[in-house]
Amino acid sequence: MTSGKGGRGRSGRPTVHTVAKAAGVGVGTVSRVLNNHPSVRGETRERVLAIIEDLNYRPTPQARRPLPSEHPLIGVMVADLYSVWQSRIIRGVETALAGQDYGLMAFALGSPQRAAQVAQPGHPSALAQGLLLCDDAAYRSWTGQERSQPTVRLGAVTEDLDYVAIDNRYGGLIAGEYAATLPGEIVGVWLRGQLKERQATRKGFVEGVESAGRQVIQHIEVEPQDHLHRVAAELLDRLPDRATVMTHGDDLALALITEAQLRGLPVGDDLKVIGYGDHSQAALVGLTTVHQPLEEMATRSTELLLDRIQERHEGAPPREQQFQLLTPRLALRGTA
Amino acid sequence: MTSGKGGRGRSGRPTVHTVAKAAGVGVGTVSRVLNNHPSVRGETRERVLAIIEDLNYRPTPQARRPLPSEHPLIGVMVADLYSVWQSRIIRGVETALAGQDYGLMAFALGSPQRAAQVAQPGHPSALAQGLLLCDDAAYRSWTGQERSQPTVRLGAVTEDLDYVAIDNRYGGLIAGEYAATLPGEIVGVWLRGQLKERQATRKGFVEGVESAGRQVIQHIEVEPQDHLHRVAAELLDRLPDRATVMTHGDDLALALITEAQLRGLPVGDDLKVIGYGDHSQAALVGLTTVHQPLEEMATRSTELLLDRIQERHEGAPPREQQFQLLTPRLALRGTA
């Protein structure tokens, strides 16, 4: 994991930032210790208290105010509220909110009309203490606004916001390095589109394959709206006899497996399939895939957001951008 | 399906209700035709227009106002935002909202603290044009309030609200009738608790078994928070050699299947398992289960809610309670 943290103490007198840095925790954690919040217990709490005493740190009076609203809510903006991706994200958010007093409010912004709604004044999302932007449309809508809420971008690198993302280039790389060790031709199937996140996986995969002195013999591009089983059937028609197929996502990989089984082709033998994502059905079916730590990404984004809310609440000076880039890993199962 | 509809025209002059009844559609549909809304097209639109002409119906001027807010939003209150149940509900809601201008805002109310938040004045849910209550805690919180929004209860029978629910007694009944046709002893595993919805399935199951002159030899009650695989292992230890196990839900059924496979027991042979729900993994694994039409329930609830919003908007007089009770069906696959 790569991470960047700003916020060193800027004067001789110890600040909450000096304490946080010395204790190796976030400012929000220090504040929760000061407020005797039940979510910080045990060793962390002891360490923070010891450092507060060592440094003779005295919090300013407003650091002990209660939460800023009678409706402490975190707002989450997602493309939809039913996909597997989204449900893993929300699980991760809830892990960070467990034991906190925050409620959870989510907005499904899958259409341009809905994303545009968010930018209008008086939208209910303005009532949230902090926002998690999990979707590109939500992010674009947000950038046009005069919002003052703490906001964290989840799942993509940005220049103007704190963010937590997954290093998909690395995810592609490890899949490519592994594919290069397998017999047969290597084929990549990618989602058409300019999204940087999508390009990163493909780029990493090619790097991984070529670093082993091999080549991806064919790249096939599919449209996001294509019917998965039709794509799978067409792929099987044109694949070499022995091939490892790297797919852009678990959904297509699972469709390929189903389609191959219908044709009596065993997967994992001459035909090998690698997924991307590691959603719940992947383990059930024995799919070899790249595990994306989505829950962890969401938990860390939320923790970062809670820290930012707490800092704002304490009147702390604005800090540098913070970011974390999480590392995927290869989940080796039966299909490749 | 059972359904109750009030709102017959009460004077000689034709009203929007007279038109809706004659056309066999909801009041909202008539209104959308009058407003030339793109979501009503083809045969329905033609029929409504023909009836409007036949009856010489003239809408009152306010029936053509635009939507009541610059932020037309439907609010959905659910226990969580990550379970399979919830994702199927949201899919159904989105089906009803497709082509409409409404946004979707959801609140996760799994804890008593969160449910209590909803009852406080100024909660963001008050900004929604209409509410779908999908959760008991949300419903209890709602009943204490002076809310004026159109509100529909989803998934449970209520006396004070419009509702759309699933007839789980019938779901239990068809499972019981089927179990009675199978060899071996019949065992039921149920979730402990007083919820009427939970009791209904069990009651129906016993009825179904007994109507065929057979008996459920054992009812086992488990706690909602019990670990599924531990429950499954304990069940397998105490089951008769030949048994059909009716479970309260697909999750436990799938855990039983996994646990049985670990012990080398084939499921569908001496040991038969029936699920309840028919969530996505059920078909994948070949689980015989009771299909709950959750998506349909959510779509119909949302359509009912949209009709109520439109009626309110037109200043229509309050109508009688409306309800629909949907019928589950048995999905026969390999495990029983």
Automatic annotation (TrEMBL), chains A, B:
<dbReference type="Pfam" id="PF13377">
    <property type="entry name" value="Peripla_BP_3"/>
</dbReference>
<dbReference type="InterPro" id="IPR028082">
    <property type="entry name" value="Peripla_BP_I"/>
</dbReference>
<dbReference type="Pfam" id="PF00356">
    <property type="entry name" value="LacI"/>
</dbReference>
<keyword id="KW-0805">Transcription regulation</keyword>
<dbReference type="InterPro" id="IPR000843">
    <property type="entry name" value="HTH_LacI"/>
</dbReference>
<dbReference type="GO" id="GO:0003700">
    <property type="term" value="F:DNA-binding transcription factor activity"/>
</dbReference>
<keyword id="KW-0804">Transcription</keyword>
<dbReference type="InterPro" id="IPR046335">
    <property type="entry name" value="LacI/GalR-like_sensor"/>
</dbReference>
<dbReference type="InterPro" id="IPR010982">
    <property type="entry name" value="Lambda_DNA-bd_dom_sf"/>
</dbReference>
<dbReference type="GO" id="GO:0000976">
    <property type="term" value="F:transcription cis-regulatory region binding"/>
</dbReference>
<keyword id="KW-0238">DNA-binding</keyword>
<protein>
    <submittedName>
        <fullName>Transcriptional regulator, LacI family</fullName>
    </submittedName>
</protein>
<feature type="domain" description="HTH lacI-type">
    <location>
        <begin position="14"/>
        <end position="65"/>
    </location>
</feature>
